[in-house]
Amino acid sequence: MGLGVLDRSRVVAPPGWSRWLVPPAALAVHLSIGQAYAWSVFKTPLEKALGLTGVESGLPFQVAIVMLGLSAAFGGTVVERRGPRWAMALSSVCFGGGFLVAALGVLLGQFWLVVVGYGLLGGVGLGIGYISPVSTLIKWFPDRPGMATGVAIMGFGGGALIASPWSTAMLAGFGSGTGGIAATFALHGVVYALFMALGVLLVRVPPENWKPAGWDPGRAAKRGLVTAADVSAHNAIRTPQFWLLWVVLCFNVTAGIGVLEKAAPMITDFFHPGPATAAGFVALLSLTNMLGRFVWSSLSDLLGRKNIYRLYLGVGALLYLVLVLVGNTSRPVFVLATIAILSFYGGGFATVPAYLRDLFGTYQVGAIHGRLLTAWSVAGVLGPLIVDGIADAQAAGGRSGPALYSTSFLIMIGLLVAGFVANELIRPVAQRWHEPAVARAEEVRAQ
């Protein structure tokens, strides 16, 4: 974009600029795109207004998640090259514009436009927006990368806590017919685009060779897997470390998303609570998912990334075993175990960018993160497929209650143990994959 206002060269922070302004910029984007977790609010109104089935009403969300993974994977290198302001602006246009296209689709009674708008266009906004601040945050906070990425990614987990009641209030005010849904979508598109624009205006990148006062990268590199070298995205995916971490993230997410997707029916099958209690349980899991992203990722700065994933995977497997053995005998045990599992699910998302930085350096960490998010796309299909598929099969066989889930819980234990082993196998990246310092410096100056 040359000398355009969105170009990386126009966003270099001036002397004295506070790095603590970057996390709010990231939050402005992640709180907005986190609306995706609240799509269920629109399912029933769309089904009634457009005559859709439950599967059809979930299609825009499913397409959006697939596009999130694909756009993050294929767009990560471009995001690194063009900079965070360009990426946030693109995300704002796509995510906000996706709502506007979806509004037009509802108004015209053309559901395919809703899928194209929210799913395809909005999904690109999700993926680019998700990775847009990661590399910048890590470069501003090399001393606390887990905390920095945890703040931003916490916003994605918490976006639904804002979007769900807001969307519900809009539908109540405008009505749940086609006109009301279209007005709600349109208002969402405009407001989210404006809110994300705050991040576009606020974000800055650090000057070349900047580092926090008193921070010694050489001393930090002596801690376990932390490296002072850099690996390109092209080379990173050729290393065993990348694919081991892909397995770790995929299985950790699979174990969490299976519970999250089935939360209300699951607690109903176990304990038969009323609808209000089941809804409160879902809200509690969402809150835990959000808080786990900040708490556990921040703690990883002290304990180390490998150790914190030992917690996510090892303790997670033990908690699933508790659910198999005694989960149906005590509601408090069931609730505590599931909220801990969901906190590990959220923590895994927030900690993985810092783990990538430790292994591959800061050079193209955003692009590497984008490629790793394909693990999320796989887990997003695998987790619900395991839990829903087995529950349906058990119900068809005449079983009910906790028996619907015991087999899927045992599978989750196996996946988490496999993830634990993959984490144990991760070692420092071999020197042959490191970027030559001279070549890297020349590319940075060319940007």
From TrEMBL:
Chief place where the protein resides: membrane
Protein's UniProt keywords contain Transport: no
Annotated ranges, domain Major facilitator superfamily (MFS) profile: 1-431
CDD domains: MFS_OFA_like
Subcellular location(s) of the protein: Cell membrane
Membrane topology: Multi-pass membrane protein
Keyword field contains Transmembrane helix: yes
Keywords from the UniProt entry: Membrane, Transmembrane, Transmembrane helix
Taxonomic superkingdom: Bacteria
TM regions (residue ranges): 20-39, 59-79, 86-105, 111-131, 151-174, 180-203, 242-260, 276-296, 308-327, 333-356, 368-391, 403-422
Pfam families documented for this protein: MFS_1 (PF07690)
Record protein name field: MFS family permease
